[in-house]
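User: My advisor, Dr. K., asked me to get a structural model of this assembly before our group meeting. I'm new to this, so sorry if the format is off. These are the inputs:
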Amino acid sequence: MGFRQRKAEEMVFKVLMIGSTVIVTGSLLLIIGTVVVKGFPAMNLAMITQTPKGGYYLGKEGGILNAIVGSLELAGGATLLALLFSLPIVLYINLYKRRKSRLAVFTRFALDVLWGIPSIVYGAFGFILMMRIGLRTSLLAGIIAVALLELPIMARAMDEVVRLVPHSLQDASASLGATKLETALHVVTRQCLPGIITAILIAFGRGIGDAASVLYTAGFSDRIPGALLQPAATLPLAIFFQLGTPYPEVQERAYASAAILTLIILVISLLSRWYGRKFQKNSIL
Amino acid sequence: MVKRLLKDLLARRAMFLFTAVPGVLVFLMFFGLYDRSRSILALHSFPDLLFGSSWFPLKGQFGLYPFLMGTVWVTLAAMILAVPISLLSAIYLSEYAPRRIRETIKPVVDLLAGIPSVVFGVWGVLMIVPLVAKIAPAFGAYSTGYSVLAGAIVLAIMVFPTIIHVSLEVFASVPRALREASLSLGATKWETVKHVVLRKGLAGIIASVALGFSRAFGETMAVLMVVGNTPIIPKSPFDSAYPLPALLANNYGEMMSIPLYDGALMLAALVLLLIVLVFNIGARAVLIKAERKAE
Amino acid sequence: MDARTHISIQNLSVSYGRQRVLKDVSVDLPDRKVTAIIGPSGCGKTTLLRTLNRLLDGMDGVKIEGQVLVDGENIYDPKIEVTRIRQKMGLLSQKPQVLPMSIFDNIAYGPRIHGVREKAKLRQIVEQQLAAAGLWDEVKNRLHEPASRLSVGQQQRLCLARGLAVKPEIILGDEPTSALDPQSSRIVEQRLIELKADYTVIVVTHILRQARRIADYIAFLYLGELVEHGPAAEIFANPRDPRMKAYLTGEIS
Ligand SMILES: Nc1ncnc2c1ncn2[C@@H]1O[C@H](COP(=O)(O)OP(=O)(O)OP(=O)(O)O)[C@@H](O)[C@H]1O
Ligand SMILES: [Mg+2]
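Assistant: The format is fine. Below is the predicted structure of the whole assembly, which you can bring to the meeting.
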């Protein structure tokens, strides 16, 4: 091949590469742009301050406060529950076991596998669990399903941070007579706190945006859930149901709700990114 | 002192139990779904259910084939769109882009990964569905827009981040000295990428595609909102399809009121789980092996 | 020295970000001789070598000033084709970098890229280069196995053969024996000495004894400055700069 031809091939592929990168970044902007442009005109105060009144899904008065609060409660509860499991797992595989021990490798593998399981399957599994323990569709059942979904996300994100804690720090603490548990809770957890918070935010973001896992488990209700055993509306499902109606006014509200959800997600995303960045700067890691 | 040590010991035991959770959970999901689909597996053989094409729950016919094909079609079409675009972007970001551009675009890709699938669905309904309806006549087809193609486009965008993220890690693991060995023979950058970087990272790239595939395969809401959901095997990208996850999402309401329906749906979930597990475990195993080799 | 100058480095400065790692280096490197670049760790030897085939200028944050003339032509001239410059120079790195392909394809890679298509011709090149590297008998029955299965010493010799297959004029080595066992080191050193009959050889080394064994010409770097350079015999016999003396006696290393 002549040199001209070789150069030309490189140029062609470079154009394709840049084009692809533009498509990838452009699609994000396009999605956010569309949702904002379509959503904001349809937004009003009632949407975020009222629950659906009678006939809301036919285009009458009301708002989606029930879904906003439901989602926050549900994702909040699920995140708490996931944290309760993630933290011990991550501390155990990093502090009690050698980081490359078989248990640690296997646990990471299992978490990665869980991470890849579709949320609809978590929904179905949550449903089975629900039947087993005699729960009805409720906030609690939703919390359990979403917590399972969040577990691998949170644990893996935490693991990325905790595994960077130098052994010397643990040894230093141990040499002062601290037990492993004390080291784990007081030294390592504190040292990694920003990273842990980032992991929590990421998991919360995933939890609040997921629809397929709550479909089976949380149910839906026009009222703000007041107790764990009541069904709860969620924002993603509210969007789905509103878009599914044949009435344009209601569909507009779906766009507005989507804009609200996107906004929440973006805020969480940026918050965790900002927090993560700050952490990198201030930490000795 | 004794109390502190005791506390430590107890905590160690408790934490060990927690650590068992992820592994156990994978098995529990599998057996839980299997257990609930036994009711229908007792009456029909697994191949009959999987490859049967009539779906009439009221008549007790539960052929999953159209749904399986719906998923396969949408996912494959999505991968055809997503793989080249993602890989080309990943190559650009890792090999060509100046650091500033790379560091700006990476967070954008992560942001894309964080967008909820319902929002993708809404966007698909607003933009992609009308677009597909509009271009269909140019291909001599009629389409409402709710189609395999619409699902594939939305899904492709959803798997960009997975493929890009993993393949960027793969490219980063190729030593710079190896690239330089090729460059110093007078190869252009592209030749180096094509013959050396891609080849060295081949296993990892395949893994990234498999991960993207398994992501796409189980994606529910976004696809459900744009594919049309008619239980017929699609014949062209402009036809509508009814993927497995959509089946699960649409019918959870009725499933307890029709006999065997719940068993059929749980079997569908089990099939979904199994396929995704195969791809996922395969990809992870390849990645772990590649990582070991690199060390 | 009476030899013709092959590479002329003129007022070369290199910085990584704000850190200046080469400071105004000027030196003429003789044609068809072995030049050893020596100096303590971190003094900029690798950097100097890499500026010669322009491996640095694509990197983020690297600033290069000054000129490098090869056969009188400034390789940093923006009009110049980088791949042609690089083809002129074979590179041996610290750890052998075999390409992820068969032994045969490793050697054939360069010629193929530069347009050699005929099977017979490629085969001839491969055989000739492997024979010259003393590898032919060891690998002739496994030409199509992945090159990564060779021992590290064999890999380094393969890399050298691969570099020669694109007909360079200059051979650059960055501590090419540091990853090898003594036996393979000897073989590679011996090859480098043989090669100076046809090529200009430039080798970075931190092993003084190796420099004494192979070098005709010495360039001594210290903290990014070129402190002393000249024919090896003179420098070793009669170092002028105190830092050079200290390095030779092992006070700094
Ligand atoms: N990519 C880089 N970015 C920033 N600084 C670098 C980079 N590469 C090298 N340096 C710095 O430049 C200086 C010279 O490095 P160089 O590798 O040229 O030294 P060297 O003489 O080859 O050392 P050694 O004997 O250890 O191989 C060192 O201080 C090193 O830290
Ligand atoms: Mg060096």
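One thing worth pointing out at the meeting: Chain B touches chain C at residues 98-99, 175, 177-178, 180-189, 191, 195-196, 199-200 (CB under 8 Å).

User: Perfect, thanks a lot.
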